[in-house]
From TrEMBL:
InterPro entries: Glyco_trans_2-like, Glycosyltransf_2, Nucleotide-diphossugar_trans. Gene3D superfamilies: Spore Coat Polysaccharide Biosynthesis Protein SpsA, Chain A. Signal peptide: none annotated. Keywords: Membrane, Transmembrane, Transmembrane helix. This is Glycosyltransferase 2-like domain-containing protein. Pfam families: Glycos_transf_2. Residues 4-134 form the Glycosyltransferase 2-like domain. The chain crosses the membrane at residues 239-259, 265-283, 295-320.
Length: 339
């Protein structure tokens, strides 16, 4: 089984350099790496390294870049990896074992965990993603969890058999973010069954730092999930995606109504008190785990702002189609600016 690793990026950046260094350490006998950049850049992969190549795409979005990479791929399975993520050495071997175990499997998702050497503010963002109060039932995306059937998965660590990918026309270039959700939806329609999340093919995924970069990312995700909940109900119209929006509406209108109808104040206060207790407990747990007292205030405020930001933008996306805009990059490092 041959894997084609497809990595979209705007340009060669610090994270991509790190990614390449770890891909060279992957222990698997047959794979290629296709890096798709806005403009062709000659990268020194090493004298004897022939598995890597760079393709120029022009200034297009991640969906177009992944499609370009997929068309150039010669592998049996496409392994989609973000430029700001990097794999464990057994990444492809672990994925191959799952596909060999289940020959009719058309796609596979693996965990994208926070890098162990992350700076404090990046690590706090990772902890927020891993919390049930923000990630709900999808926290397996961000940590090692048990195997489960899924119907949606992000492209940071997503394997799709090339035959299956080609049969649905690849990624829909009209969406970003959310192109991966649309791809999964088309695969669900074609095969009429879910695919797998398995904890064994692990990658490490850098997080946006608290507060502004993370919240910018959360806002973008919220808008597109809200829009998808309206137009693609099969794998986006789930209660867990609506909860932050209901929470946001409850916070605003519950406060106003409590002055008009005094009895509502007791219910409003009780629900708000319960929420504060849950956030307090989660923040305290992370503080103990991290052995760092300052983690408490960052987690408490981070969870609250994440819920409100996602909720507000989910409502916005549900009502109005969001625009897709390429993210800006830093001229020096080549890394993305903001969220």
């Amino acid at each position: 089984m041959k894997f084609s690793v497809v990595i979209p990026a705007r340009t060669l950046n610090d994270h991509l350099k790190e990614n390449i260094s770890y891909l060279k350490k992957v222990r698997y006998y047959d794979f290629e790496v296709i890096i798709v950049l806005d403009e062709f850049i000659k990268i020194n992969f090493g004298l004897k390294e022939t598995r890597f190549r760079v393709i120029e795409s022009g200034p297009v979005g991640p969906a177009q870049k992944r499609n370009i990479g997929a068309r150039a791929a010669s592998g049996d399975v496409l392994a989609f990896l973000d430029d700001d993520a990097y794999p464990q050495p057994n990444w492809l071997r672990s994925a191959a074992n799952v596909f060999l175990e289940q020959p009719d499997l058309y796609a596979l998702g693996g965990p994208a965990v926070t890098p162990p050497n992350s700076e404090f503010m990046e690590k706090m963002s990772g902890m927020i993603f891993e919390s049930y109060l923000t990630g709900g039932s999808t926290i397996y995306r961000y940590k090692i969890a048990k195997r489960v059937e899924i119907d949606d998965y992000p492209s940071v660590n997503l394997f799709v058999k090339k035959e299956a990918f080609d049969s649905v026309g690849g990624y829909d270039v009209n969406y970003w973010p959310g192109e991966d959700t649309k791809l999964c939806l088309e695969l669900l329609k074609k095969y009429n069954r879910k695919f797998l999340y398995d904890p064994s093919p692990v990658v490490y995924h850098h997080r946006r730092e608290l507060f502004k970069p993370l919240l910018q990312q959360i806002a973008r995700y919220g808008k597109h999930r809200g829009y998808f909940a309206r137009v693609f109900p099969k794998n986006s119209r789930k209660l867990q995606f609506f909860v932050p929006a209901l929470f946001f509406i409850g916070i605003i209108f519950g406060f106003i109504l409590s002055f008009i109808i005094p009895k509502i104040w007791m219910v409003y206060s009780a629900v708000l008190f319960l929420y504060v207790i849950l956030v307090f407990a989660e923040s305290q747990k992370v503080t103990i785990d991290q052995k760092d007292f300052k983690a408490f205030r960052y987690m408490f405020l981070g969870i609250l702002l994440t819920n409100l930001t996602y909720g507000l933008n989910f409502i916005s996306g549900f009502l109005f189609k969001p625009s897709s805009k390429l993210r800006s990059i830093d001229d020096g490092s080549g890394n993305y600016i903001g969220g």
